[in-house]
């Protein structure tokens, strides 16, 4: 069972949506099946970023709760991320830089893990991240 999961599946794993109980059950069943098979579900970084947006905008999940949910997923053996180190660093940056948003933290962390020494942006808050630089 080699499975990557989409944003809507991740959201159903994290949020008990009363408007979609069957989908929530199916998502949790998928996690249980992955656990039983010993083959973790893959979360692609783009899906993680999209999930953060859905949690924040649609479900009004606050920053701390969202970070906690993602940390919990990092610690779940039946779920793996495209690049754990990038996700861990993004969550660390999110905690350390309250003015930065998750997207900027994830982008900066990924740039670092791809060997880039600078993260150039027009966003003043993102420029405060390590290796961040405001383009003028």
Describe the structure.
By secondary structure, the chain is mostly helical. It has two domains: 1-82, no CATH class; 83-136, no CATH class. Helices cover 58% and strands 10% of the residues. It is built from seven helices and five strands, in the order E-H-H-E-H-H-E-H-H-E-H-E. The chain has helices at 7-14, 21-37, 45-57, 63-74, 84-96, 102-113, 124-127, and strands spanning 4-5, 41-43, 79-81, 119-121, 132-134. It has a three-stranded parallel sheet. Helix 1 (7-14) packs across helix 2, helix 4 (63-74) runs antiparallel to helix 5 (84-96) and helix 5 crosses helix 6 (102-113). It is globular. The N and C termini lie far apart (49 Å). 28% of the residues are buried. The mean pLDDT is 94.
* Contiguous helical run count: 7
- Spatially, the strands of the biggest sheet line up as 1-2-3
Number of domains: 2
Average pLDDT reading: 94
- List the helices and strands in order: EHHEHHEHHEHE
Largest sheet: 3 strands, parallel
Strand-residue proportion: 5-15%
Distance between the termini: 49 Å
- Structural class, from secondary structure content? mainly alpha
Give start-end ranges of low-pLDDT stretches. none
Counting DSSP E segments of at least 2 residues, the number of strands comes to 5
Using only CA atoms, what is the Rg?
16 Å
Shape: globular
């Amino acid at each position: 069972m080699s499975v990557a999961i989409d944003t809507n599946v991740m959201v159903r794993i994290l949020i008990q949506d009363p408007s979609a109980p069957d989908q929530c059950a199916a998502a949790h069943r998928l996690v249980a099946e992955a656990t039983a098979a010993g083959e973790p579900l893959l979360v692609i970084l783009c899906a993680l970023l999209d999930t953060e947006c859905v949690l924040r905008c649609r479900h009004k999940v606050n920053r701390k709760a969202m970070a906690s949910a993602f940390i919990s997923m990092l610690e779940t053996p039946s779920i793996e991320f495209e690049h754990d180190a990038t996700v861990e660093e993004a969550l660390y940056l999110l905690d350390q830089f309250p003015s930065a948003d998750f997207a900027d933290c994830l982008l900066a962390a990924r740039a670092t893990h791809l060997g880039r020494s600078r993260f150039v942006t027009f966003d003043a808050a993102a420029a405060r991240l390590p290796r961040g630089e405001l383009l003028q």
